[in-house]
Design goal:
With 333 residues, the protein is α/β, with parallel strands linked by helices. It contains 11 helices and 12 strands. It has helices at 18-37, 56-69, 84-91, 105-113, 149-158, 173-185, 197-205, 216-224, 272-286, 289-297, 307-328; strands at residues 7-8, 14-15, 46-50, 73-77, 99-104, 125-140, 164-167, 190-193, 211-215, 229-233, 259-267, 301-302. Strands 3, 4, 5, 6, 7, 8, 9, 10, 11 and 12 form a 10-stranded mixed β-sheet that branches. Strands 1-2 form a two-stranded antiparallel ribbon. Helix 6 crosses helix 11 (307-328). The longest helix has 22 residues, at 307-328.
Length: 333
């Protein structure tokens, strides 16, 4: 009887034929590769690219997600060019769910004002979820003799071209909020653009300008400490962050509405299962009572939704800002 050559196997058995040797080798290789192929998302830290504005919300979300995912959210602030730099960075990254864009209304405005951008919010990104909305506050220098929207309008009409309103730059939401106010109130107030919201607020505090529309997270501390007077909020309904303040609409300018928002987009082509995972777990964080309380104190009203609902939200935001831009005649060089 011919002898049979015995082959040792790494799985602890004896393979008695060359065919079995090959099969065993494949099993060993498969066992080694399985952890990589079946690795659950996320398997490494995630980068959140933030344009202009606060990084507080992604940091708070990241602190909570560490307990769920065991991975860090690393915030990468790229405030230059009104968010265009941040958008381009994320658009060029791999569509694997490991780079997020903290998107805002500014990205919609950029798409309208800069149609030749190298990346497109609508074509190069997948919507994940709306994180929060926030009103803007109509702030005035306390020395200004106007304690209501009506009094401010009367004062501006009596002093055409003598009242200035500050913003973070041409084409920013605060600028367009001011232009809408100017148009609907039929007053002549002068726009003074700054390089940032912080710079605009600094000059408002110093009495160098008289009015500014500021995103609630930026405006709230100065309103709460009494250094600036808030006359109204720009949302359609009164805001939870300052329910005592009337809306601009109920103060005589019916139909006036400007709101800001924060959200998550990822590069187009990101697998739907990963988008769904991000959506599910981020929305779970947004529902935590301590997170909602902390963000409300900072001026943000949390409001997670599905990718489909968020896509519809962004789609509806485009005609809103386009109308404001066209009515104001805003152009950027």
């Amino acid at each position: 009887m011919p002898s049979v050559k015995m082959h040792p196997c790494k799985r602890g058995r004896i393979c008695r034929t060359p065919l079995r040797v090959a099969a065993c080798a494949c099993m060993v290789l498969g066992a080694q590769l399985m952890p990589m192929a079946a690795a659950e998302y996320p398997a490494k830290p995630i980068r959140v690219v933030v344009g202009p504005g606060s990084d507080l919300l992604p940091r708070v979300i990241g602190q909570k997600l560490v307990a769920v995912w065991g991975q860090q959210l690393v915030v990468d602030q790229r405030p230059g060019s009104g968010g265009i730099i941040a958008q381009d960075i994320v658009a060029k990254t791999a569509a694997d769910g490991y780079t997020w864009l903290l998107s805002t209304a500014a990205f919609v405005i950029n798409a309208i004002l800069h149609p030749a951008l190298s990346s497109s919010l609508e074509k190069d990104f997948e919507p994940v979820t709306l994180l929060a909305t926030a009103t803007y506050l109509l702030l005035v220098d306390p020395a200004l003799p106007a304690k209501s929207v009506t009094e401010l309008i009367q004062l501006a009409r009596a002093n055409p071209g003598q009242i200035n309103f500050a913003s973070a730059g041409v084409g920013t939401p605060p600028h367009l909020a001011g232009e809408m106010f100017k148009s609907m109130a039929r007053i002549n107030i002068v726009h003074v653009p700054y390089k940032s919201a912080a710079a605009a607020v600094t000059d408002l505090l110093g009495g160098h300008v008289q009015i500014s529309f500021q995103f609630a997270p930026t405006a709230l501390p100065h309103f709460k400490n009494g250094k600036l007077r808030a006359l109204a909020v720009t949302s359609a309904k009164r805001s939870l962050i300052a329910p005592e303040l009337p809306t601009v609409a109920e103060s005589g300018l019916a139909g006036y509405e400007v709101i800001g928002w924060n959200a998550v987009h990822v590069p187009a082509g990101t697998p739907k299962r990963i988008v769904a995972r991000i959506n599910k777990d981020v929305r779970g964080v947004l529902e935590l009572p301590d997170v909602r309380e902390r963000m409300l104190a900072a001026g943000l009203e949390l409001s997670g939704n599905t990718p489909e609902a968020f896509a519809a939200f962004v789609k509806a935001d485009f005609p809103h800002w386009r109308k404001l831009i066209e009515q104001s005649g805003t152009r950027v060089e």
